[in-house]
Amino acid sequence: MAQIGSFTRNEDGIYNGEIRTLTLRVKATIRPVERDHDKAPDHRVSAGGVEFGAGWTKAARETGAEYLSLKLDDPSLPAPIYATLTQGDNGEHKLIWSR
Predict the structure, then answer these.
(1) Cross-referenced InterPro entries, in alphabetical order (predicted)?
(2) Which of 19, 43, 65, 78 has the smallest number of CB atoms closer than 10 Å to its CB?
(3) pTM to 2 decimals?
Protein backbone atom coordinates (compact mmCIF):
# COMPACT_ATOMS: atom_id res chain seq x y z
CA MET A 1 0.00 0.00 0.00
CA ALA A 2 1.24 3.46 -0.86
CA GLN A 3 0.02 6.95 -0.11
CA ILE A 4 -1.05 8.55 -3.39
CA GLY A 5 -2.64 11.72 -2.07
CA SER A 6 -3.53 13.97 0.80
CA PHE A 7 -6.70 15.93 1.49
CA THR A 8 -8.19 18.32 4.01
CA ARG A 9 -11.87 18.34 4.94
CA ASN A 10 -13.83 21.55 5.32
CA GLU A 11 -16.86 22.19 7.54
CA ASP A 12 -19.24 21.17 4.71
CA GLY A 13 -17.68 17.69 4.49
CA ILE A 14 -15.88 18.47 1.21
CA TYR A 15 -12.33 17.15 0.82
CA ASN A 16 -9.81 19.14 -1.22
CA GLY A 17 -6.36 17.87 -2.08
CA GLU A 18 -4.07 16.29 -4.62
CA ILE A 19 -3.71 12.80 -6.10
CA ARG A 20 -0.17 11.82 -7.15
CA THR A 21 1.05 8.69 -8.94
CA LEU A 22 3.77 8.11 -11.54
CA THR A 23 1.29 9.02 -14.30
CA LEU A 24 -1.26 11.19 -12.48
CA ARG A 25 -0.93 14.50 -10.66
CA VAL A 26 -4.23 16.33 -10.18
CA LYS A 27 -5.91 18.63 -7.70
CA ALA A 28 -9.12 16.86 -6.76
CA THR A 29 -12.30 17.41 -4.78
CA ILE A 30 -14.34 14.73 -3.02
CA ARG A 31 -17.91 15.91 -2.38
CA PRO A 32 -20.74 14.28 -0.46
CA VAL A 33 -23.83 13.60 -2.61
CA GLU A 34 -27.37 12.37 -2.03
CA ARG A 35 -27.74 8.63 -2.57
CA ASP A 36 -30.38 7.30 -4.99
CA HIS A 37 -30.38 3.84 -3.39
CA ASP A 38 -28.48 1.93 -0.69
CA LYS A 39 -25.62 0.81 -3.00
CA ALA A 40 -25.12 4.21 -4.63
CA PRO A 41 -21.96 6.15 -3.76
CA ASP A 42 -22.27 8.89 -1.16
CA HIS A 43 -19.29 10.87 -2.52
CA ARG A 44 -18.17 11.94 -6.01
CA VAL A 45 -14.57 12.70 -7.01
CA SER A 46 -13.77 15.40 -9.56
CA ALA A 47 -10.76 17.23 -10.98
CA GLY A 48 -10.88 20.23 -13.26
CA GLY A 49 -14.67 20.03 -13.34
CA VAL A 50 -14.60 16.42 -14.61
CA GLU A 51 -15.99 13.59 -12.51
CA PHE A 52 -13.65 10.62 -12.38
CA GLY A 53 -14.55 8.68 -9.29
CA ALA A 54 -16.98 7.72 -6.58
CA GLY A 55 -16.74 6.92 -2.88
CA TRP A 56 -18.61 4.97 -0.25
CA THR A 57 -18.48 5.64 3.50
CA LYS A 58 -17.39 2.54 5.40
CA ALA A 59 -16.46 1.68 8.99
CA ALA A 60 -13.43 -0.32 10.09
CA ARG A 61 -14.44 -3.68 11.57
CA GLU A 62 -12.12 -3.55 14.56
CA THR A 63 -12.25 0.13 15.53
CA GLY A 64 -15.44 1.42 13.94
CA ALA A 65 -13.46 4.35 12.49
CA GLU A 66 -15.05 5.80 9.36
CA TYR A 67 -13.19 5.98 6.05
CA LEU A 68 -14.00 6.44 2.37
CA SER A 69 -13.58 3.59 -0.09
CA LEU A 70 -12.90 5.21 -3.49
CA LYS A 71 -12.89 4.00 -7.08
CA LEU A 72 -11.13 6.36 -9.50
CA ASP A 73 -11.40 5.79 -13.25
CA ASP A 74 -10.70 7.66 -16.46
CA PRO A 75 -10.24 6.57 -20.10
CA SER A 76 -6.55 7.47 -19.82
CA LEU A 77 -6.01 4.91 -17.03
CA PRO A 78 -5.31 1.26 -17.92
CA ALA A 79 -7.51 0.12 -15.00
CA PRO A 80 -9.49 1.70 -12.16
CA ILE A 81 -7.59 2.85 -9.07
CA TYR A 82 -9.03 1.60 -5.78
CA ALA A 83 -8.04 3.65 -2.76
CA THR A 84 -9.01 4.42 0.82
CA LEU A 85 -9.22 7.91 2.32
CA THR A 86 -8.38 7.71 6.03
CA GLN A 87 -7.86 10.23 8.82
CA GLY A 88 -4.20 11.14 9.23
CA ASP A 89 -2.40 13.57 11.52
CA ASN A 90 -3.24 17.24 12.11
CA GLY A 91 -6.50 17.15 10.15
CA GLU A 92 -4.90 15.64 7.06
CA HIS A 93 -6.60 12.72 5.31
CA LYS A 94 -4.39 10.21 3.48
CA LEU A 95 -5.36 8.58 0.20
CA ILE A 96 -3.95 5.04 0.29
CA TRP A 97 -3.77 2.95 -2.89
CA SER A 98 -4.38 -0.78 -2.79
CA ARG A 99 -4.60 -3.48 -5.44
Answers:
(1) DUF736
(2) 78
(3) 0.92
